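Feature request disguised as a bug report, sorry. It would help if multi-protein outputs had a clear separator. Right now it looks like this:
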Amino acid sequence: MGRQKRTHIKRKTLMSIEPKNLPDQEIISLFLNRLKTFYENPENLHASIKISVSDYLEHVYFLHFYDKLIIEKGSTTKTLHAQITLPLFIIYQIIDINYQFDWNDLASTNGIMYSGDINCLKFFQNLCLRPQPQTVARFHRAERLHARNKFQDIKKIEYIDKPTQQQILEAIKTGKPVVLKGFEKPIKRKKWSIRRLKNFYGNILVAHPQKSKEETLSIFIENLENTKTLGHTKLPIEIWADLGPICFDRDEFIKPQLSIGVANADTTHSSLSRISLAKFYMQMIGSKKIELYSANQSHLLYPLQSYNEQQDCWFKPENPDYEIYPESRNATKISVILNQGETLLLPAGWFSKSYSVDDLNITVSYCWRYG
């Protein structure tokens, strides 16, 4: 494979449209055409998926992933790898400039049905995402800050014991990651275990985005243990009393996420990615390794052009392909082991990738709205 060719899109095209008063068929056409605008396929995925709109089942579309995105209507002779049925209101949300669409939020994706190859489905889901203008601006601001302060040369992450709220605010402002420890409030969290979590909250329903359904927390954990895969879900409100944020008011945070990792799993916690807000990673059970890349190295990490608050990267540090992503050879990283009871504060713009260290570990992460 040759060197990855980057497509440069003018910033104004990042903005979606406001689909008020448009005919339904025009909305569908705009949706399909927009998929082509941000299409990129550096790893040469060859696959075909079927798209149906539940409001107009007589209209069927086929997306063929090659060097370019090919769209057929009506029928195809190609082998299908996945199928997706979307309600029209979901398509409205995806192309609406005023709406931040999130595939991991079951409340937002109610009515979507899909089956087939997970990688093909994920590829399609990424194509549907668009950043808000403020998200793009935050990333650009972080890149300038990191370049000015040469954050790519940082060798070690600072630890702050029993930090004050003022120290936390200063860390967010400076843009440097720090590990926070010694909090008085979450002392009881050090006693958490998988068994205790199941005993206290095992019957609570949690969202399973990959299955587009809800299941009990006990089943969610057991499935991850048995299949040795990663898992993400929104933190149920019932657990906030014990696993709530360590600083600021609760309503200052976007819905927190519960991440469960298994050592030597088929996949790690997530792809290399960055968030446009300050993020707190609170390690509840076990330990995890987190690798960090400064924001001003974005040109070396091949971030996707389609994203929302979180921007994933094509480059995979755990299995680097320098033939496709040659510039990544020049990227520098710092690593930290996050132990039980510790919290990593990651200011906006940092790229991160996490790996399980212990047999099973649980992390609760919070994004601060004002970071």
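(second protein starts here, but nothing in the output says so)
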Amino acid sequence: MSIESQFDASLVPTQQKKNLSRESLLDPSYLPKHEAVYRAFVLKKYFSVDWRRFCTNYVNPIFEFLNEEHLNALSDYLIQRSEALGASDDSPVSILEVGAGNGRLSHFLQEQLNLKFPGKANITATDSGKLGLESVFPVEKIDHEKALKKYKPKIVICSWMPNRVDFTESFRAAKSVNEYILIGEADGGCCGDDWLTWGISSSLGENRNGNKKVAPYIADGFVREKLEAISAYQICRSDEPGFYGKSVTISFKRNS
């Protein structure tokens, strides 16, 4: 009899089951289902202290709870976009992740692409290393501007851009980039810069001359779209168990 078949989950006390469920989420190689994340913290007494402590783990901080449904939806979108950009075996689409941290997002996305779209899209995970996060999967230590020049990607992904920091000006300036995808809090949240990244102004929408201010991404010829089918499965550190939705996935496409 195998070790797995000897384990009877029904014999584990309820509280211990919840602890086991939560601890498994700290395993970088484990990609849970959306429901598994929900069930690990669903009880009211875990709504605040336990959740915050779990997400701010110093060894393995969690910003986005990656899950199967979210990654399936995102990989399907990347396949659709890669096809539109002319992906082929001879000319695979280059996708660049910046600020990749431990590399989990790129790792699981590449697994999905290899299964559903083999040989036609390659993801490269990069990170500046400034936050000192441990790389679990392959991550090249290089800043985003150098990475853009080196890989000349058609699509850029950035998950949880640092607060009050903007990378997107560099994305738009890179001639190879047709689209960039931002994952995290938007429009006044803790990711990126309100104006430079999201086009959210606190000055009532007018510049000093009284003219209407134009968001940088619009001025640079990009169109913004919230990807609802992907965002629906997101759970992040600033959510509360059972009350999700603060993290979203937003696409910025270059006008053709």
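Even a blank line would do. Unrelated, but nice: The CA atoms of residues 18 and 40 lie 6 Å apart.
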